[in-house]
Amino acid sequence: MMRLRFFGGFRLESRELTGRAAQRKRLALLAALGTAPGQTLSRDKLISLLWPESSTDRGRHLLASSIYDLRQALGEDALHSVGDDIVLNPTRIDSDVTAFEAALRSGDRESAVALYAGPLLDGFFVTGAAEFEEWVEEKRSRLARQYLKALESLAREREAAGDRRGAVECWRRRAEAEPLSSSVTLSLMRALEAAGDRAGALRQAEANAALLRAEFG
């Protein structure tokens, strides 16, 4: 089983993509399929994301060529055609985004939080594909919100269970993601104090105040 890693960048585990399969539009095609609901997208949707300026015939040719190159690199059965849709074969290749969303659906916040290694496709750009960038940005924002919500819920669960160190860890990660939030900083301070680290709570307050002064004067 190969896994695509999209959180914090772009990486394919257990396989190296080289040659034409490593071109940006091919990688973007994998990213689109690996982050789509059910990992299924129509050919027209993929063309509109990656080759928006091309004619229908030209776009279909470019998509077919890209699919061919990826199948050559990953295996003929890595990508399936289902009617007019393209889908990753879930028995051959999955993604951290798919696993993240599945964990959230099952209520396994701990696994979901562990999978989130940074913003979706951080640092990955495709020249001349503004539609793809907009599509990614929408998904990046949605997944980040889901992560923050899961992290906050996990922090409160650990507080309720008396896991003070675990709660501190969650609130610290939450504060790192939103350092200007005074309410999140206050929650972290409370968690630190509950864990017996009053000095750490005070340092956190001072750091947040300095950050707010620097940002807003």
Report on this structure:
This protein is mainly alpha-helical. The protein is 61% helix and 9% strand. The strands form two sheets. The chain has a three-stranded mixed beta sheet. A three-stranded antiparallel beta sheet has the order 3-5-4. Strand 1 and strand 2 (11-12) form a beta hairpin. Helix 2 packs across helix 3, helix 5 crosses helix 6 and helix 8 (182-194) packs antiparallel against helix 9 (198-216).
Strands side by side in the biggest sheet: 2-1-6
Shape: elongated
| Major sheet attributes | 3 strands, mixed
SSE-based structural type: mainly alpha
Terminal Cα span: 52 Å
Provide mean pLDDT, rounded. Answer: 93
Measured by DSSP, the beta-strand proportion falls in: 5-15%
Count the beta strands.
6
Rounded to an integer in angstroms, the radius of gyration calculated over CA atoms is: 21 Å
* Helix-strand sequence: EEHEHHEEEHHHHHH
Low-confidence sequence ranges:
none
How much helicity do the residues have? 55-70%
Short description:
The protein is mainly alpha-helical and 217 residues long. The chain has helices at 24-35, 43-50, 56-74, 96-105, 109-115, 130-160, 164-177, 182-194, 198-216; strands at residues 2-5, 11-12, 40-42, 79-82, 85-88, 93-95. The radius of gyration is 21 Å and the shape is elongated.
